[in-house]
Structure formats: structure tokens, C-alpha cells
Amino acid sequence: MTRWLQHTALRQSGLWLFVGVLASFWGLVAISGWDGLKASSVAERIHVVGASDLVGVTRLRVEEVEPSEHYVPATSVRVGVGSDLRIFPRVADEDATLGILAPSSWIAASVDGDTLVLRVRMFSSANSHGRSRAKNWIQTIEVPVHIAHLQLEQSSVDVLVPMEVLTVEGEQLRVSGRIKALEVRSSECRHLTRPRVGRHEDLEVNAKHMKSVRLQTYHGRVEIQHSEGLDRLELQLGDEVALSLDRTGVLNLPPGRTALATEAPGLQRCANNTATSDAHASRTPTRAVALVPVQ
């Protein structure tokens, strides 16, 4: 009998503890304001570009509207996730109630020929140290595997499924994953939409699952890791680029499988880069596509 009474008392005390914790939670919500909780959930709701809007699309370009000198966290780009393109927006915690609207108000999507274009409008403010930082940004983009050309900046690209070829163009990039042949080109000849922040590598490649890597950049730092499985490596670098290799043996591949060229970026090189990109410009009208929120 005594044991039964003790057991019952413990169950009752546990129940009252749970009720107390629950009451405390809702009390804090009431103090901080339900509207703030609701605003954050709306501002960070996942948005999707449906597979039907991606028919014929093989390229993705992310660009910032009216770029300014502010710090923006890196975007994670995951290639090979489903048939839709999924966007995960992020709002700084302290700005969740400061009028940041739904992502559809600051992210616009359109299709230009074979290219899906995401135009992002970012808001910024100065912190206590006077440093400008973004209030809103894209934290993650999940990309279907048939999109094999990415143009973006300050991003970490990870390929989750086997790909034959991937081309990445931009600045401040980290690329890894299951790519047979990777090509990375600097966008130095274009206007950079984000300032360089931090001391990380301007370009970093984890070649663990790759067979061929071709890099073209004219400034900053380049780092190549896990290069032991490469059958081909081609580097076209500016004469001031700082190069870091995990093993020098990759530079001794048989003739025709390795190349290291250094040069300063000239007008002709910039013209070639521009011409290459212009060749993919659409000759058909650009069409807007819907960003569908996921409940």
C-alpha cells in the first residue's frame, strides 16, 4: 500500500511539473508577443519552384538586387535533392518582427531561356560595432540534379548524387561531392555583388569523389583537398594566386592530364568570359515563375 501511494505521488508530481513547464512557456510567449513568433515563421517559410517550371532549365543564377557592402552568411547549395528547387530563407533573430515580409516579397524567380534566375533583395543594418550586416538572406538552396551550371557567390556547393559534369561560376566558393568532372570559373570580370569577408579560401575544392578538376581564377586563394583520386587537373591561375595542394604528386600526372598556367587577367580574357556567358542569353522573353510556400 505504501509503495502504491509513493508511486501515485510521483506520477502526480510529474504531471504538475509538466503543467508548470507548459504554463511557463506560454507565459513567455505572451510576454514576448505571439506576433513575433508568427512573423518569424512566415519570414522563414520554405518556398519551392515546382518541377513543371524547371522543364528545360539546366542553369541557376543567383544575383543580388542593389548590392551593398554588408556581411552576408554563406549559402548552402545542395545538388541532387528531388525534382523541385527548394529555397530556405533566413531572417536575423532580432529582426524577425521588424517588418521583414514573406520571402516572396524579397526573392523573385524567373526563367530566361535555360536559366532559372533568383533575384534577392537584402536589407541591412549596422551592429553595435558599426559593421553592416544583412537582415535577411537565403540560407539553403536545394537544386535538382539536371541543373548542371551554377552562377553564385559566397556559397558552399555539395553534390549528393553522382553527376557527370558540373560547372560553377562565382566567387568565395567551396565545392564538394560526387562529381566526375568539375569546372570552376572566377567571375572576376563581373561586378562582385558581395564584399570578401573573413580569412577563408576564396576557392576551395574537396576532390575526394572527383576524377577531373578544371579551375580558372585570377586572384585570392585556392585550396584543393583529397586530390589523390584525380585523373586530370587543369589550373589556370593569376600570377598572384596563393595555391594550396594537399599533395604535389597531382602535378605529375601523365602528359595531357595536368596543366598549370599562370597569367594576369587581361582584357581579352575578360572578353572571352563575357562572350561565353552571353552565348547563353535568352532570345525568348523572360517569364516569371511562382515561389510556392510550403506549409
Could you outline the blueprint of secondary structure elements for this entry?
Layout lengths: L1 H31 L1 H10 L3 E3 L9 E7 L9 E5 L5 E7 L15 E6 L2 E7 L2 E3 L5 E3 L1 E8 L5 E38 L16 E4 L5 E6 L3 E5 L6 E6 L4 E4 L12 E5 L4 H12 L8 E3 L2 E2 L2
Parallel strand pairs: 2-6, 2-10, 3-9, 3-10, 10-11, 10-12, 11-13, 12-14, 13-15, 14-16
Antiparallel strand pairs: 1-4, 1-18, 4-9, 5-6, 5-17, 7-8
Task: Report on the architecture of this protein.
The chain has 295 residues and is α/β, with parallel strands linked by helices. The chain has one domain (42-293). 18% of the residues lie in helices and 41% in strands. The strands form two sheets. The chain has a 16-stranded mixed sheet that branches. It has a two-stranded antiparallel sheet with strand order 7-8. The longest helix is centred in the N-terminal third of the chain and has 31 residues, at 2-32. Mean pLDDT is 78; it is low at 31-39, 190-200 and 270-276.
